[in-house]
């Protein structure tokens, strides 16, 4: 089990909608997993988002792949975290 998987079980709820059959939009899943893998804690991500979903705080750009979005969104999260 990876770090981000244990955080999902033990920490705050992830900032995307989940149901038993659907674990959230792929863009938001990828960004949340990357944020945790890059060192942000779940509570830090939640503070950065301020109650918004990831895609609301960091909109997906047209034509952007989930991987490219995740990388950019996490970079923007770190900038927001440092401000």
Task: Please characterize this protein's 3D structure.
The chain is mainly alpha-helical and 83 residues long. It has one domain (3-7, 26-82). The protein has 5 helices and no strands. The protein is globular and about 30 Å long. It starts with a helix and ends with a helix.
Strand content: under 5%
- Proportion of helical residues: 55-70%
Which parts are unreliable, with pLDDT below 50 for 5 consecutive residues or more?
Answer: 1-11, 18-23
Total domain modules: 1
Number of distinct helices: 5
The oligomeric status of these chains comes to single chain
Structural Rg? 12 Å
Largest sheet: none
Q: Which class do the helix and strand fractions yield?
A: mainly alpha
How do the SSEs run, as a string of H and E? HHHHH
Number of strands: 0
Distance between the termini: 32 Å
Outline: globular
Mean pLDDT over the full residue set? 80
């Amino acid at each position: 089990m990876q770090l981000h998987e244990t955080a999902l079980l033990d920490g705050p709820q992830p900032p995307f909608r989940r149901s038993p059959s659907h674990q959230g939009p792929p863009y938001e899943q990828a960004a949340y997993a990357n944020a945790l893998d890059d060192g942000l804690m779940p509570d830090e991500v939640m503070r950065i988002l301020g109650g918004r979903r990831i895609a609301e705080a960091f909109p997906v750009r047209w034509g952007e792949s989930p991987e490219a979005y995740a990388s950019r969104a996490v970079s923007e999260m770190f900038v927001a975290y440092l401000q």
